[in-house]
Amino acid sequence: MECRKALEDKCLRNNWCRELVRLVIAVEGKDESHGYPHTLRVLCRALKLAEGKNVDYKVLIASVLLHDIGRPFENETGVHHAVLSAFIARLVLPGLGFSPEEVAHVEKAILEHSFSLASSRPDVKSSNKSSIESCILSDADKLDALGAIGIYRLVETSAQRSRNMHDTLGHYHEKLSKLPQLMCTEEARREAEILLERLKRFVNWLYEETREYADLVNVVDKAFPLHG
What we know:
By secondary structure, the protein is an all-alpha fold. The protein is 66% helix and 0% strand.
């Protein structure tokens, strides 16, 4: 299903969904890496992955829309953004007509989407209905970190976090290169392998072009110490 039509049919016709979109826009802002543009891309991917599966769309859409809403508060609170996002979901969803069971499923999916919250990852072998929403959110979120979009996000996030090239390449090897093997669904795993090749090509070019210069900064730093 084409993304815009899926968004209109599955989400924007429902008042609860429109209210969540308003909340996400207000809280996350326009940051392409982790703001609401990222959330909308993940939603499009999630709706595509959900086609033909026995999915609770209300749970899935709410999980996707709220999966990163705690991120703006992560640094100041010292609490993982997925934990904060699940907490916010628990606060706002009952007022939008979600049952306790639906809220619990949304919380589970949000907690399980994060790469860094390793203890809560969805079981990649699971296909039962209670976890399919978790798997789809996790897959869709990880797919957005690969491919050409992944290149953009890698560079933008590195700039935001003051990573140098060495640390940026380290992030690729420690996290991004491992994402295909963490996919729950076969469709996402196949797409992830394709998208990873695009990202890998960029990383290899970066290695190739910087190899000759890799130690220059260290050499200069030693020759001209700031407090020498």
